[in-house]
Amino acid sequence: MIFLLCISAVLASFNTQYVTDQLEIQQTNLNSSKSYLLSLIITQLPQNNYCLPLLQVIINNETHNDSLAYSIKANIQKVYFNSTDNITIKVSCNMLEYFQNQKNINKTMHFNLTMTEAKQHISQPCQFPHYGQNCSLSIQQIQKEFSVTILILNNTWFYAYTILDNDDYEIYVQNGESLFGISIISFNKENATRLPSFLQNLIVLDSYNNDENQISLPKTENSQESIYIIGLYNFNSTQIQEITITITASDKNEDFPIWATILLISIVIFGLLLFLIILCHYKRQYKKLTQIKPALDRKVLKKYMPPQKVDTKMSTDTCSVCLVQFELKEKYCKTPCNHYFHEQCLLDWTTKQANCPVCRQGLLENEINELMEVKNIRNRQVEELTIKEAIKQKDDPPSQTYRDLPFLQLSSSPFRSQCKIELDCSPQAEHSPQIIQFDGSPQNLTNRNLCFQSDGIVESQN
């Protein structure tokens, strides 16, 4: 129901009674040199009692209202204004947020609207714990750890305060089957009294919930003591209702002292470090146990038998390990005993054995050095023998027949060797050639001497 009244030529002062839920009035015959007081006096609130009556005065698109009276749902709202000859007056009833989803709410109210010439009177704020007109009322104190039962008039606020130390507390409220609203604000007692309202942290306590309602009061960090003002509103429009409040310390565990926190953190850090040390040690041991150490050190293999690319000269050769011919662009390794293998084949072989797959020559670093030394000695002996033979041939030219040669000497070698000699004993080559074969090995260090006897070649151990 919307009631719109436009007044363009009436007296500046009036007193009119209305029954509606919305009202808008245009006032145009004011004296801009005078001050006025517009009052809204509510004689009967809406039946459902879930909305807040609001008086607004609009002057040049600026809205003025009695915010304090509106926030606590006071029966009288006053607005002072001046320096204007034209105003718009609006009266409405705004639903509380908790009840906005309800339907078929009757917001009709009975009220008087009066306007008189008056100068604005600024009253002094009330000092805590006093409040109300002329600061004649006092806020009641509630002690913690005690239960207090309070009777609250219908459509009325009840105010109380409590002083708590720097800790967490809980408020337990038993409202039975009554519908209450509760608003709690923190407060500094050095300031003027400030009251809870519908617009500050309002909590509606349902009438169908017979259990205790629990509200937390967190501790403040700026002071040792905290003052909380508790506002209770009885939504019942006809009866006085009873409510019980109990303020107790929170059951939450107290904060750990600093030394206990530091000790706990130190234990956790020490445990993590110990776990990491054990884990690293375990990984190291596991790696040693699971890793297969090759028989031949890879550094020796890389130093004395570096991998090389296969060329065309080796295309017909065969690896003695895998028995597969070498292919171009493959990599091979050459052992100090002059045997050729695929790189991977030699790696796999030397993982278990440290010798040559063909002649069993040892491939350890000291064995390779011994082999190289024997080779050097042999090369020097061959060079010396070659020089002596050259000098002898120069001084005494050799005979054209083999009978002048005393013997053929074969020196010992670290390699397993095989020798085959074919000799045609007749000048006319009428007879078959005589053949002498023998095997030599690194273990047999005896020199082999071949001597000519009776037009033949025999082996002598002299």
TrEMBL record:
Q: Which residues form the RING-type domain?
A: 319-360
One GO cellular component assignment for this chain's record is: membrane
Q: What is the protein's species of origin? A: Paramecium octaurelia
Name of the protein? RING-type domain-containing protein
Report TM segments: 256-279
Q: Name one GO molecular function term.
A: zinc ion binding
Top-level taxonomic group: Eukaryota
Its keywords, alphabetically, are: Membrane, Metal-binding, Transmembrane, Transmembrane helix, Zinc, Zinc-finger
Among Pfam families, the record links this protein to: zf-RING_2
Q: Which InterPro entries match?
A: Znf_RING (IPR001841)
List where in the cell it is found: Membrane
